[in-house]
Amino acid sequence: MKKLMLLAVISAFLAITGCSDKPKEESQTEAAKTAETAKDIKAAFVYVGPVGDAGWTYSHDLGRKVMAELPFVKETNYIESVPEGAESVRIITSLAQKGYNLIFTTSFGYMDPTIEVASKFPEVTFMHCSGYKSSDNVGTYFGRMYQPRYLSGVLAGKMTKTNVIGYAAAFPIPEVIRGINAFTLGVRSVNPDAVVKVVWTQTWFDPAKERDAAESLLDVNSDIIAMHQDTPAALQAAEKRGALAIGYNTVMQEQVPNAWLTAPVWNWGSVYTKIAEEVHDGTWKSQDLWGGIAEGYVDISPMSDKIPADVQAYVLEQKAKIASGELHVFSGEIKDNKGNIAVEAGKTMTDGEMLGMNFLVEGVQGNIPG
């Protein structure tokens, strides 16, 4: 009996030892593979405006700083105020030549330059913001900003007294058009009598032009100013005239404390962290990232205390519906501002259709410049 017990103990010990050897070998192999593919990150950013713009470029730089805290990110750098076009080719090339292995180009006009430079540096990972062209070492990323745009429109529709809301818009590209339309759909969902008047500035960053655009909108009875621009200049015009303001990119409440309502804002830190981790561990592949409220890429900022509690609660209810997928901003029926049906009842625009949007919805007063 003692011998049998001893044999049983020895057998159990061998079984346990045998079972533990294989996972140990596998875990060591996995660790070796990870160590082999993992690499330190040297990241560079190309900015279209100055980091002090308080808007678009500033929001990206906040994201850069978040990513820079990752232990494997050994260096980050940026070049600000880089013109879109030929000059950006030179800048992007110089960054690749300096050994940066992850390069972010953060404006639509950098799309073709990014593709051009990437073809010469296949070992470098490039990520282009808001574009639609990619290659083996070029991916794209953006956020579904139309979701918080819609929410800010709901807020504007609730808060306007004159039923005229002004919108200072940059360039007539699908990104900007999509934002105007989402905002207007939000406005009209709660206030079908309100209209959104649009003035195009044809610039991302020009405080004087942005301010002039807002002034012209205030002159035609707008009591709320929204914008798709890179600085708070349009909002400051609203503040000066006693109107209300809805920002963009970041929280600009300090610049316009009396006018401030809220803003659709970016959370680039989560995006840049995700990309850097994938490049570091060797899992990155070219793809088109387009996250929304649910993914944490975009949000609506905390709302001003001047907004009634019931209005704030309603906006947050709509936010929850968007995050859960219950509410789709561009679901039909939707008419354009010429009376034509743009989206049929019961249908929702595809990502491709939204990314190529080239019409203005009913309720927008203005045209898309040729």
Distance between the termini: 96 Å
Helix- and strand-based class?
A: alpha/beta
Report the sheet with the most strands, covering strand number, pairing sense and barrel closure.
6 strands, parallel
CATH class bucket of the largest domain: Alpha Beta
Helix % is 40-55%
Which regions contain 5 or more consecutive residues with pLDDT less than 50? 1-35
Q: From the structure provided, what is the oligomeric state, counting identical versus distinct chains?
A: single chain
What is the 3D shape? globular
**DSSP helical segment count:** 11
User: How many domain units?
Assistant: 2
Radius of gyration: 25 Å
Mean pLDDT: 92
What is the strand tally? 16
CATH topology annotation of the largest domain: Rossmann fold
* Neighbour order of strands in the largest sheet: 2-1-3-4-5-12
Q: Give the topology string: H per helix, E per strand.
A: HEHEHEHEEHEHEHEHEEEHEEHEEHE
Which superfamily, in CATH terms, is the homologous superfamily of the largest domain? Response regulator
Tell me the fraction of residues in β-strands, as a range.
Answer: 15-25%
Keywords: Lipoprotein, Signal
Protein name: Basic membrane lipoprotein
Pfam family, one: Bmp
Domain ABC transporter substrate-binding protein PnrA-like: 42-329
